[in-house]
Amino acid sequence: MDSQAEPKQRPFVDLIISIIIPSLILMKLSGEDKLGPAGALIVALAFPICYGLFELFSNKKRNYIALLGIVSVLLTGGIGLLKIDAQWLAVKEAAIPLILGIGVLVANKMGFPIVRKLLFNPKLMNVDRIESSLEQKNTKTEFEQKLDRANLYFAGTFLFSAIMNYVLAKAIVTSESGTEAFNQELGKMTLYSYPIIAIPSTIMMLVIFYYIWRTVNRLTGLKLEEVLVTEEDNN
Fold it and tell me: Which of 87, 118, 144, 192 is 20 to 30 A from 211 via CA?
């Protein structure tokens, strides 16, 4: 068993702290008789920023995604507090996933395919058994080509996010930044982003994983239980 435990995934906690609480604060507490536009924005964004910093420092490994998330939230706060034209919010919303997608493609060209680290890795799949079977059947080259294609599909999920983020921001956030209406629209956009963007992106990731599994099955003949890592394999 690996002596260094992996950080536990807490998707429900992440959903509450990063999306639901900030959205409710922005939509319900931005009035002048409550926190005010600036106060509500600061309090709302403090939740994902503090949570992101906690994740960043509690994880001993460098977490560039968490760092980029913090930068994204800070940029959102800057647009609202400095009363920058709201159109830049849409640009920022599209730019972050677009940068990630380009990063995936660049990393693949440099010999570091991200999809291999995320999906085709020893924590999920019995990589040694798969590669041994690929060698025996002389299908390793074809598998590498399919893995490159999966990496391209993975980059495509970020392109989807970039487009949808831009469309969502342009459609919902139309008021002048620094106002109560802007905060309410920002909260609504944040809330809508989960079912409209996050869930479809997750489904796309599952489809990519299925694509990798079907490729492994076709090129090696291994069954699902022979491919996936079990608790017994980790002991």
Answer: 192
Query: Span 91-104, mean pLDDT?
Result: 92
Q: Give residue 206's Cα distance to chain centre.
A: 13
Are 32 and 180 contacting, i.e. CB atoms less than 8 angstroms apart?
A: yes
DSSP-based three-state secondary structure for 62? coil
Contacts for 221-227 with beta carbons within 8 Å, 24 or more apart? 221/133, 221/137, 222/129, 222/130, 222/133, 226/126, 226/129, 227/125, 227/126, 227/129, 227/130
DSSP 12-61: HHHHIIIIIHHHHHHHHS-STTTTHHHHHHHHHHHHHHHHHHHHHHHSSS
**Structural tokens at position 114:** 């991200």
- Kindly write down the DSSP assignment for every residue of 155-195, as one continuous string: HHHHHHHHHHHHHHHHHH--SPTTSHHHHHHHHHHHHHHII
Which of 19-28, 113-122, 124-133, 159-168 has maximum average pLDDT? 159-168
pTM over 0.85: no
Residue-wise pLDDT for 207-220, tens only, equals 998 998 899 888 88
Segment 3-9 long-range contacts (CB within 8 Å, at least 24 positions apart): 4/60, 6/123, 7/55, 7/58, 7/59
What percent of the chain has a predicted confidence (pLDDT) above 90? Answer: 37
